[in-house]
Amino acid sequence: MSKTSKFKGTGVAIVTPFNKDNTVDYKSLGKLVDFVVKGNVEYIVVLGTTGESVTLSKEEKQSIVTHVIENVDKRVPIVLGLGGNNTHEIVTSLKKSSDFNHIDAILSVSPYYNKPNQRGIYQHYKAISEESPVPVILYNVPGRTSSNIASETTIKLAEDFKNIIAIKEASGNIEQCMKIIKNKPKDFLVISGDDMLTLPMIASGADGVISVVANAFPKDFSEMTRQILAGNVKEAQKLHYKLTDIIEQLFADGNPAGIKAVLEMMKICNSIVRLPLVKVNKATQNALAELVAMYK
Description:
Elements: E1 9-13, H1 26-38, E2 43-46, H2 58-72, E3 78-81, H3 87-96, E4 105-109, H4 118-131, E5 136-140, H5 142-145, H6 151-160, E6 164-169, H7 174-183, E7 189-192, H8 198-203, E8 208-211, H9 218-229, H10 233-250, H11 257-265, H12 282-294
Parallel strand pairs: 1-2, 1-8, 2-3, 3-4, 4-5, 5-6, 6-7, 7-8
Helix pairs in contact: 1-2, 3-4, 4-6, 6-7, 9-10, 10-12, 11-12
């Protein structure tokens, strides 16, 4: 097995469940991990954007990672979200962490708020690559970072650093994604960061997805991904269109508030999010409830 093959297919960016007193709900976290693993996803991403990592303390992050490692119990690979806008802090975390014997890769979001230019983005990831003991997956989400990783920068990073193995592309720019797919090194993966665009991205040559909707519907979404990867367009389309209305509503009033609302309906965890995020509004709640009730 190549170092990239384990990240083809569906990864799920798991939520972080909270109790009513805003503490981490480890019981529900374990329940969620078991649910998505049994739903046949290929790997789990912990402490991503959907996991509300920016509102977790260092101690909570450590406990969550330990809990996920224990509950996964080597059944699927684990990707750790480890990024930010302070390069030195990330590099220091890479040097100090003791979890990498159980972590298969890191997912590192492009620096936000600072708005670095392309040279700064390149140097940021160069520093991470040189210190990371595990493969690195770039994460481009300009809607959150206000800074796009240009296709040329992605390709240069892929060519210059062998442990930079993939990019999670959530720019929504299919043309940019196709430029990467066309010009990337052979084993470099392009991973969809947008559930709705996963089918067309894979049809264009991408390798999978890191998903939000797979928290609640892991079997159908991971099967859709496997079918389109296998070239079975009609079968993939059926599952894609089965999920599109739900996917649309999941993001109508913010992520992860939408997916947590659905997970509460499914009795996996409650819908509590940490400020400054708030629960979905009543209209979105009602729309999601209707869609979940109709789902078969």
